[in-house]
Design brief:
elongated, mainly alpha, Serine Threonine Protein Phosphatase 5, Tetratricopeptide repeat, 16 helices
Length: about 300
Amino acid sequence: MCEHVPLFSQRCSEVRYRLGLTARDSDHDNAAAARWITDAAYNDHPAAHWELSQMVLKGDLPAEQPSDNSSANSARSVATLHALKAAELGHVSAQHACGLIYERGEGGVEMSQTKALRWFRAAAAQGDNASEKEVARLLERAASAPQNDANAQYELALLYRAGRCGARSDTSNEVTCARWLEAAAAQKHAEACFELGQCYDSGVGVEEDKIDATAWYREGAELGHGVAMYRYAECLRAGRGELKDVKRSNQWYLKSAATGFVEAQYKAALLCEAGYSGLPPDMDAAKSWMTLAAKQGHEIAERRLLRWDL
C-alpha cells in the first residue's frame, strides 16, 4: 500500500494544479487559484512552482517578505525562489529563466555566469532551442578574449560541429569548429588536440594534412588522451607524418591500453601474444589485456578468449 503513496500524492498535486488553473483562467478567481496552486507546489509539483513565480511577478499573489525590502524586490525574490524550485524539479521554462536570473544577478541571487550556464544547459538538454542559443552565447563570451577559456573553446567547437549554433551551412560549421579547436589546442587542451588531429586527418573544416594530423595526435597523446595515444601509435607504425618507428608505436599502444581504450587493449593483447620489441610472447599478459577488452564488449576479443580457453 505504501509504495503507491508517492504516485497518489503526485496525482493529487496534478489535480490541485489543474483546479488552480481553472480557477484562474475560467473563474477569474486569483485567490482560489493561488490556494490550489500553492497546495500543489507544497507537494513539489514543478509547474505549480513555476506558476507561482509568475503570479507573484504579475501581482496576482502577495509576496510575503521582511518589511525592510521594497515590494518590487520582495516580489522578485519570492518569484525567484519558486522559479529555482521549479528548475530543480526539471521545469524547462524555469530552468531557462534561472539562467537569465543568474546571468543578470536578479531576484536576490548573486550574479554567476557558471550557474547561468548550468541552467541554460539543463534546459537545452530538454530540447529548448532558446537555451541552446544562450549556451552558445555564454560560451562564445568565455572563449573569446580576454578570458580565452580553453574548455569553453572546446565545447563551443563541438556545438558548431553539431550544427547547434545557428550557422547557415555544414561547411561554415566545420570551419568554425576547427577554428575553436585550434584555439583550445593551442592552450594544451587534450581533447581539442585529438579532435583537431581528426579534422586534419579527414580534411573536415581544414585542408587535409597528414603531417599536421600526426602532430596533433602526438600533442594529445603527450597530454594523456588515450585515443590520441592509439592514433599516434598507428601513425608511427605506418610511418605517417613521422618516420616509421615500430618500437615507439608499441609503447604508445600499451600506454593507450593502460588508459582503458578498448581497441588499444585488444592491440596490446595481440602484441603480448606474438611478442614485441624483442620481447618473447607473454600469454599471461595477453590474456589479461584480452579479458579487459572483452569486458568492454569487444566482440573479437570475446571470441579470441573462447578459443584460448578451449
